[in-house]
Amino acid sequence: MSLTLNRIGVQAPDDSSRHLLKEISLELSDGSVTLIIGHTGSGKSTLLQILAGILEPHSGSIAIDQQPLWDKRKVNQAHLLRLGLTFQFPEQQLFARSIRQEFAYSLRPYKLVASECDRRIREACEEHDPRGIFAMERSPFALSGGEQRRLALATTFATAPDWLLMDEPTAGLEAAAVRELLRLIRERSRGGFVIATHDLDTFLPLADRVLVLDRGALVFDGTPEALCRAPELLAHAGVGLPSCVEAELALARYGIAIAPDLLTPELAAPAMLKALRERRSAEVPAPQAAAPDAPPAREASAAAPPPQAAWLRVDPRAKWLLYLLLVIGTMQQMAWSGLAASALLLGLVSLGLPRSVLRSSWKIAVPFLIFMALSIWLAGMNWTSPEGSFQLGYSLERGWSTAFTVTRLFLILMDGYWLAVTTPYGQLVAGLNWALKYLRKVKLPVESFSLAVSMMFRFIPMILREWTRFSAIVRARGKAAIRPGAVRSRDIPALVVPLLLAMFHKAEQLTVAMDMKKIDGKQLLLKKSTLEWQSRDSYIVAAGVVGFALLLVIR
Ligand SMILES: Nc1ncnc2c1ncn2[C@@H]1O[C@H](COP(=O)(O)OP(=O)(O)OP(=O)(O)O)[C@@H](O)[C@H]1O
């Protein structure tokens, strides 16, 4: 059982010139424990998602036992079943009403007989629930945060994948649970582990192999001992040293030399003792150099910021004005030809937006289109009962008129999406402040309005980001052999429940933070303006006015 990556490249979804992974080639062999380490944003999670078949590489190929994982943009399901992925904060993936259903969801793709399912659940509970709190009918949401984390890990272990791919598995786990996890990894007799982690102290002594990523490139591939003999490489890649190596380097500054590749306190302590005895000197000289250097701050830890799309450089006031002109112009339309013209203008202002942004608009558009279809259907329905007999009919006229109204609303919604994706949050608020400053003079309650609008726009990109994150999680759990980014209807509850919970949690955090800072909207208006109007912005507004005039003529 081997996993082979051949010159894998991944581009950022919002900017194809930014490479999240660059030409990664490696072969992972059965029975090995491999660590992926690197600075924040170096591409560890991305590499794990590539290995798990959740993300399709833009270049290169990936194979399991020499069989390609991807075929015509679809992942091979038989291979998928052999891979298990646990995400950072795995407790956030829980969605079901009971612990039993949580296990059932993870095991369903394996089509096991009931007795085998029960056996796997029992074993996973024995391993991950030493205190016996996972009563099968209990709600997962009635568990504490740490218990939820254990449960989420248990559901993945129950699927018994050949390859277990884990993203920061010790984050938020108590020491006992970490020890238990290490024991499980050590005792596993088959398959392999790939672990992305910052926790070198815990995992280095266990690892057979370490991969170091630096800005998407593989800069080291070797044993933990070899890595610790080259600590400058770790510092250069923005990774802290393991504690034992730090201690060994610090002792070296006092002239006490110990091999720098003793990865555990159990190995390092006798070596230190031996070195001290050998010196036979009561006096310890002053250190020969300053305290160990902290690894240099990684200014470039994240890759250079992506080049801005043209619309991002436009003054937000121009974009607010354009947005208002589009919305008012669309609201004025009384005929389908007018709506077509509004749609055309929306299409024109959307030119040049990255493809990923346009694709994301579907996530907003699809629920609304469903709502539109339902509204049109319901609005046109009529029930008549002449002389006692019941007749069902459909009024085309009413359906048509509703279709017109909801299409107009749809265009306005998409205008709002355009403004949100072309304008960073800070600029959006700055532009809004500028507009509202004048209304404030006439004593309108603009503070509340400003706060409400800016919150709304803050939430739209957040929802899209969280949607992407949770859809990757359900793809990993549901093992669906479908196109990247797609979600099966049966997986919707597993996606929507955690998504809503995450959004409620974020809203709660935001409210508490605003409460503590006593933000009530006034601050937004008092912010100093940093806007800079350029001639380009005037042309854009002028073009917007022409488009608006056209819309008025057409209506
Ligand atoms: N959906 C996305 N759109 C744009 N950029 C993304 C997306 N997902 C990840 N990135 C970028 O890809 C880079 C690698 O991200 P990744 O999550 O793989 O890093 P990581 O090494 O796992 O970081 P951490 O240690 O913080 O978890 C980061 O610069 C991140 O901003």
Automatic annotation (TrEMBL):
<feature type="transmembrane region" description="Helical">
    <location>
        <begin position="538"/>
        <end position="554"/>
    </location>
</feature>
<dbReference type="Pfam" id="PF02361">
    <property type="entry name" value="CbiQ"/>
</dbReference>
<keyword id="KW-1278">Translocase</keyword>
<dbReference type="InterPro" id="IPR017871">
    <property type="entry name" value="ABC_transporter-like_CS"/>
</dbReference>
<dbReference type="InterPro" id="IPR027417">
    <property type="entry name" value="P-loop_NTPase"/>
</dbReference>
<keyword id="KW-0472">Membrane</keyword>
<protein>
    <recommendedName>
        <fullName>ABC transporter domain-containing protein</fullName>
    </recommendedName>
</protein>
<keyword id="KW-1003">Cell membrane</keyword>
<feature type="transmembrane region" description="Helical">
    <location>
        <begin position="361"/>
        <end position="380"/>
    </location>
</feature>
<feature type="domain" description="ABC transporter">
    <location>
        <begin position="3"/>
        <end position="240"/>
    </location>
</feature>
<dbReference type="Pfam" id="PF00005">
    <property type="entry name" value="ABC_tran"/>
</dbReference>
<keyword id="KW-0067">ATP-binding</keyword>
<dbReference type="InterPro" id="IPR003439">
    <property type="entry name" value="ABC_transporter-like_ATP-bd"/>
</dbReference>
<dbReference type="InterPro" id="IPR003339">
    <property type="entry name" value="ABC/ECF_trnsptr_transmembrane"/>
</dbReference>
<dbReference type="InterPro" id="IPR050095">
    <property type="entry name" value="ECF_ABC_transporter_ATP-bd"/>
</dbReference>
<feature type="transmembrane region" description="Helical">
    <location>
        <begin position="320"/>
        <end position="349"/>
    </location>
</feature>
<comment type="similarity">
    <text>Belongs to the ABC transporter superfamily.</text>
</comment>
<keyword id="KW-0547">Nucleotide-binding</keyword>
<dbReference type="InterPro" id="IPR003593">
    <property type="entry name" value="AAA+_ATPase"/>
</dbReference>
<feature type="transmembrane region" description="Helical">
    <location>
        <begin position="400"/>
        <end position="421"/>
    </location>
</feature>
<keyword id="KW-0813">Transport</keyword>
<keyword id="KW-1133">Transmembrane helix</keyword>
<keyword id="KW-0812">Transmembrane</keyword>
<dbReference type="InterPro" id="IPR015856">
    <property type="entry name" value="ABC_transpr_CbiO/EcfA_su"/>
</dbReference>
